[in-house]
Amino acid sequence: MDPIAILFLVVAIVVVWGGMVASLIHLLKNPDHLSGEEGIAPGPTT
Amino acid sequence: MSSTTASPQKASREQFAGRWAFIFAAIGSAVGLGNIWRFPYVAYENGGGAFIVPYLVALLTAGIPLLFFDYAIGHRFKGSPPLAFRRLSRWTESIGWWQVLICFVIGVYYAAIIAYAAMYTWFSFDERWGDDPEAFFFGEYLRVADDVAPNLEFVPSVFWPMLVVWLILLVILGVGVKKGIAMASLIGIPVLVVMFVILVVVALFLPGAPEGLNALFTPNWEVLTNPQVWIAAYGQIFFSLSVGFGIMITYASYLKRRTNLTGSGLMVGFSNSSFEILAGIGVFAALGFMAQANGVEVAEVVTNGIGLAFIAFPTIISEAPAGALIGVLFFASLVVAGFTSLISILEVVVSAVKDKLGWSRWTTVIVVVGTSGLISLLLFSTTSGINVLDVTDAFANNFGIVGAALVAVVVVSWLLRRLDNMVNHLNAVSSFRVGRAYKVLVAVILPIVLAYMWVSDVVLKATEGYGDLPSWFVGTFGWGMSIALIVVAVLLSLLPWTQRSALHSELNDNLESEDLPEYPEHEGTGPGVQWDTVGQHHHAEHPRKGH
Lengths: 46, 547
Known about the structure:
The complex is a heterodimer. By secondary structure, chain A is an all-alpha fold.
């Protein structure tokens, strides 16, 4: 593979799959009953 | 605080067991045929590696905002699209029915594609297509008639697998949200991911795979100044995410009141795109092999849709080492991805009929799936089926989905001016806050993008027709069908909601639960709904801490 193609393969994976992992971590840190303005703890964390 | 407590007079709506059941079901809906056979081609045609820029912009500025938009309507108003829009405002119920009818049309032809893929999974073992996959597909398999007019010459190898698809659907939808819909995705999505990862690994070891990946990922920055590339990115995100035609409204209506909506939505949006990237790698590695095996450039073998699945891939399977394995993994992935999407598409119709008529789930499913299956088999398991499929697919997606989504965002944002209330609802229960930027995206950016997509497609089809098909055929199954959906949607919205209907018999605990004061009914909205007080209500009942 050409270096530029490898670079963009890596960029696509890191950005999109990284976004999925970040979303997963965010979700795990914010259970339903604690989320949002109705949460019993401060809701927004991002 | 219970979110499921019913009042003595009213029943609780069906619910997902938890947010992961919902997230898997939503991913199962979003990850479909488009991820596998559309995204790789669109990315390749629109800048290769550089496409990641408009693609991400489209995901963040249109896909995820529209996902949140659907979640807010479905979750707040706890109903299928007609019920949710009816509770939003009395006169917007027809928008919901329009979305339901689009799902009905897509559902009846989607089952045919799953049937093709199921048969090709079987054909992969002995490479039934021989030396000419194209002639086999249209000739020996589909037996496409010379005359495009619909006929009743059934093709057994299409009819029987389609019948099985409809029977499985009947059972899954019949057993309900928890045991059927959620369970199908909780099992299906991990199976799909495992199969596709193995497929990608096998494809990466094929000779020529690096050339395929070069073709997909080498960036062409010049195309980013072309507006069509940006529209292609928005189109891909839009069609891929299952947004704008009622599915996410329906699924969100099955969530308990306290559900982290935006946090879940981010997970669904990025998971769908992650699978698309994986599909791009697998498909282009395989196309790279096909190009090398035939001594041509990758550009000459690149294709999408039915051509990719049923002509290019059989060619690859015949020529590749471990071809049968590749075939089984690829076509079984199409079956699983398609099935979890088809379940969500048909559930919109089931949910709408069930809400409006107040029938039991099994009665509704037998009537809806039975009727849909009958029409599906009559239209698409015959020698004329593929042409009807081609036209209805093109019009249901562009005229239907884009049109209905455009009307929904414009009506909610500008005519009813309920966007502030929707934002309040999302922020009341969600961890990822939305605010002014979100409102600009939904009220300004989305209508512009959707209007451009809709108008340009309508103008193109009106001036140039569609494909090589005769105008009467496109006029009937394309334009005629599209306009008929709107007319029927308006007529259905005029039917009264009986006392047995979900509007009157189901509890909406967002609005009427025991620990919340009931909103007064007022003219122009459904019972118990008063958007204007939503924000104040949340603040009064649950004062924010730390703000």
